[in-house]
Write a structure and sequence with these properties.
Strand order of the largest sheet: 1-2-3-6-5-4
Number of domains: 3
Mean pLDDT: 89
Low-confidence stretches: none
Order of helices and strands: HEEEHEEEEEEEEEHEEHEHEEHEEE
Shape: globular
Length: 315
Amino acid sequence: MAFAAEKLPSDDALLDAYSVSVADAVDRIGPAVCRIERIGAGGHGSGFVIAQDGLVVTNFHVVGDARAVRVTMPDGASREGHVLGRDPDTDIALVRADGSFADVAPLGDSKRLRRGQIAIAIGNPLGFEWTVTAGVVSALGRSMRASTGRLIDDVIQTDAALNPGNSGGPLVSSAGEVIGVNTAMIHGAQGIAFAVASNTANFVISEIIRFGSVRRAFIGVSADTTNLPRRAALLSQVTTNTAVRLRSVEKNGPAAKAGLKEGDIIAAIDGRPVTGVDDLVRMLDAERIDRETLCTVVRRTGVSQVVVVPVARTS
């Protein structure tokens, strides 16, 4: 008996579905994307409105040390904005623009991202205002060095083309959520660009709104998100399948003094699962400074509980 071959979608149909996904996401987020210029100084970049009362997210390197900026929307409306706070360690800044805004760009959950997912960059590259480029999420959990010299962890790598002026604009999913804040491209490379994950940006924004700056506890490590083997998850009594692997441990830092070493996996802090680098960043807040913190550590030799006392992070 002969069977009819299953009819597959045509290339035209697939391309149309992709186009519709990108266009819908741009229609949703595009009206909230703005051009940001320093008042009284050169340079410009991008940003996006996250609240109707004028909260605008951008890069630290876009605003620099400026206290005031000019915020211009796609409809041509231009307003003055004041920098509420900045965090050079993550290249994030928060601006309050005058007036009210009907269109906002919601921050999504970057922890749910997968490699190969559609990534759309919206911004103002090289003076070509409100430009859209699209690609995919190329890699997750990357690290890059901020202008302060510190590593920004949990960075998204994408092949959506970025150019000077894209900085501070949103990286958007096909669902129309901001999954990252575009921050850098590698000069001389093709198809390699980076964005600060939305969960990291959300943490920074919350700190700036509450305290005017980002307060952090410091244990002296750099880390990557890693898979947690099922046996290790059972032994450490956590229900997640990812954790944090220590890439380096600073000599004489709190982690080193507690006995943590490169290659150790932190599965939980004070009994709460650490599913990724963004969890580690959020958990090491100001409340943990000078406070004994219990880390559930997975090693080849088994699972152990290590007490670390974070210190105040100095700039």
